[in-house]
Amino acid sequence: MAETTEGNIPDVDRSLQETGYTGGSLTSKLEEKYEDTDTWLAIKAWLDSQKTKSVVHVSFGSEAKPSQTELNEIALGLELSGLPFFWVLKTRRGPWDTEPVELPEGFEERTKERGMVWRGWVELLRTLSHDSIGLVLLIAVWERQLKLSGLLNRWWCWLLCTTKD
Fold it and tell me: Residues 141-147: contacts with CB within 8 Å, 24+ apart?
């Protein structure tokens, strides 16, 4: 379990610093580019209720899809970590994908007090720029795009590298 800060909330930033996994967080300038949609307002309300740098953001986009085994392991890790999380979950890569992945039975019920699973599209850069995000799990292509755009400043990330068709 991660070290804790006041209120017994895990300090993702401090505990991961010791392991050497570094990244950055996005700047707040992104707010100027977006309109407040119902989707964003629902997501923002949940993120606003979390402590700064405490939320694990999980998103693999619409092209990469973890295997069912990988998805189960990620879910188990989130559940056992005790950390709050925001998971943008795509269960299939499109209508042609005949093998959707599913969360383990009961996962959402067991984690509903500290996690949000979002099955729709999100404004990824806007969501990642929120102050509550402290750890990011994403596909490698996003990490490169964020670095090239100059938006990377300071968050922790783990990259899923996939070559699946």
Answer: 141/61, 142/59, 142/61, 143/23, 146/24, 146/26
Q: What is the pTM of this model?
A: 0.72
Strand 133-139 to 115-118 pairing: unpaired
Q: What share of the chain is helix, strand, coil (3-state, %, to 5)?
A: 35, 20, 45
CB 157 within 8 A of CB 26: no
Fold adopted by 6-160: Rossmann fold (3.40.50)
Q: Which positions ≥6 away from 147 have C-beta within 8 Å?
A: none
Structural domain boundaries in the chain: 6-160
Token pair, residue 134, equals: 């402290």
The CB-side HSE value for 26 (13 A sphere, CA atoms) comes to: 22
Distance CA 134, CA 1 (A): 15
pLDDT digits (tens, 9 = 90+) for 63-103: 777 889 989 999 999 999 999 999 999 888 778 888 889 99
Tokens of 23: 């990244």
